[in-house]
Design brief:
The chain is mainly alpha-helical. Helices cover 61% and strands 8% of the residues. The chain has 13 helices and three strands, in the order αααααααααααβββαα. It has a three-stranded antiparallel beta sheet. A hairpin with a 6-residue loop joins strand 1 and strand 2.
Length: 311
Amino acid sequence: MLGRGRSDERQIQRTCRRKRIMIFELSECEAIIGYKFRDIELFRQCFTHASYANEHPGEKNNERLEFFGDKILDFVVTEYLFNSYPDEDEGKLTERRKNLVSKEPLTEVIFGLGLDGHINLGKSLAGNKDKNEKFFSSLYEALVAGIYIDGGLNEAEKFIYRTVLKNSKQQGFVSRQNKKAAKKDENSLVKSDKVASKENKKTEKKSEVLTLNAVSKDPKTELQEYVQKFKLGEIKYEQSGKTGPDNSPEFTEAVTINGKTVASGKGKSKKAAQKEAAASALKILLKNGKKEAKQAKKPLKKHKKVAAKAN
């Protein structure tokens, strides 16, 4: 994280007084994102929606930053996936990237960081923040661009690794300057992953039972692959409930396989609820093993009973 000198702090205070910004709010946001901006005007612009700028002449909106940040985010995540999954084809890599950088996961990141209440919106939109994921995904992309402009690619990468890639296959961040020196270590990690993968396949063949540990960080993809493997039928997700206030709703999503409800899940967004439902369905299917999975190909009766008990 970059620091600021006394003269920078005095400039920030003058800017805050002129723009009527709460100093503690800026400090709070900087602590959350893990980076201190040298250009406080740029930092404010990241949080300024076009509707607010239209009502306040002289304010700059975050649309250009969003455009730039989208490309930076795409590049960093694509490079990460390309290096982390050397054996996967373009289709699987594209699916992984979509699960990381589309509107819903970026919205979840902003809510998870607690930055959703800091967006500057116009009066006409101020009461509808929870209804438009683009407000929040745009904020994330604008922050990526802002950090890149203010501190460089290395700092932007750190932010992306801390927030979007923190739960991915290989945790931790290697700076761009140190990547060459770390290449040998990365190669050995890839080799270790391959060896571990081969060992896991041998164990699966011997036991002929899939274990709960097989559930990955992307349960929807895992469930899709499992269902296709054993030809269990079509997967569908349906919203079965919504509770809580408008500014903080909780969604309930049910997952059905071959027309039968297997499990349900809850979350702050529809995608989060679907992931929870997929994870629960996987646990039910994996618990019953390969035999149950083959029998489920018929009418999924046993899975229906298990799902009813679980719910």
